[in-house]
């Protein structure tokens, strides 16, 4: 069995995929504009993530769970994702997803992309309808960082063998903790603080950053 050489942990909504899953759900529930405003404030660091998520999920109460299958078809993976994951696997990396979004939308995608590790929120439902509550603990910004640390420890990796990437304020703790921290098409607060920035919609640029890291080059934007 190949030794694990490194670990990439990335956000899902706005990073791996172009959409925000909760905004898609909110549109189906007829509360799209209200939820989109709250999502934007949370991703820009203007609202506490956990309380914001609970408020947004509460607005989904009564939505039929049958919408998950239709919404999964609307989710678009960002360009370069398949190339990135395939290349990292060939290099001996594990690839993990940590998301403030929901297993109900992410699980089929993670399976199709052969993702190794996954942590996300779950929506509570009863008799085929959402209750407006999250089931179990919420994936918080610190929780994302803890998953990075836990998975690195699981594979006996040092932090300098880890990469973390995201676009929102809730991704900053893991971006700042990782050996290589990357802001992808990110909100201003994230782009300002992340060591590396990808400013075009191409996830394969991560490979260039990994290859450059540690060399005597000044470029931090790709």
From TrEMBL:
Keywords: Amino-acid biosynthesis, Hydrolase, Magnesium, Metal-binding, Serine biosynthesis
GO MF, one example: L-phosphoserine phosphatase activity
Gene3D superfamilies per UniProt: HAD superfamily/HAD-like
EC annotation from Swiss-Prot or TrEMBL: 3.1.3.3
Any one GO BP annotation for this protein: L-serine biosynthetic process
Catalyzed reactions: O-phospho-D-serine + H2O = D-serine + phosphate; O-phospho-L-serine + H2O = L-serine + phosphate
Annotated protein name in UniProt: phosphoserine phosphatase
Family per record: Belongs to the HAD-like hydrolase superfamily. SerB family.
InterPro entries in UniProt: HAD-like_SerB, HAD-like_sf, HAD_sf, PSP
Annotated gene: serB
High-level lineage: Bacteria, Bacillati, Bacillota, Bacilli, Lactobacillales
């Amino acid at each position: 069995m190949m030794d694990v050489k490194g670990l990439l942990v990335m956000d899902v909504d706005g990073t791996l995929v172009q959409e925000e899953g909760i905004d898609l759900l909110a549109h189906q529930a007829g509360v799209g504009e209200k939820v989109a405003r709250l999502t934007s404030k949370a991703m820009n660091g203007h609202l506490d993530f956990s309380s914001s998520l609970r408020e947004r999920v509460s607005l989904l109460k009564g939505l039929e769970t049958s919408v998950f299958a239709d919404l999964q078809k609307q989710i678009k993976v960002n360009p370069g994702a398949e190339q990135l994951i395939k290349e990292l696997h060939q290099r001996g990396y594990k690839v993990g997803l940590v998301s403030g979004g929901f297993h109900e939308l992410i699980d089929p995608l993670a399976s199709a992309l052969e993702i190794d590790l996954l942590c996300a929120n779950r929506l509570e439902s009863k008799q085929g309808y959402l209750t407006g509550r999250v089931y179990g603990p919420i994936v918080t910004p610190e929780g994302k960082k803890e998953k990075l640390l836990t998975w690195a420890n699981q594979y006996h990796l040092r932090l300098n063998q880890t990469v973390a990437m995201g676009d929102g304020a809730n991704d900053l703790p893991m971006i700042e903790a990782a050996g290589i921290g990357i802001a992808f098409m990110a909100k201003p607060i994230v782009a300002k603080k992340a060591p590396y920035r990808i400013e075009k919609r191409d996830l394969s640029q991560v490979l260039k950053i990994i290859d450059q890291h540690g060399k005597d080059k000044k470029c931090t934007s790709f």
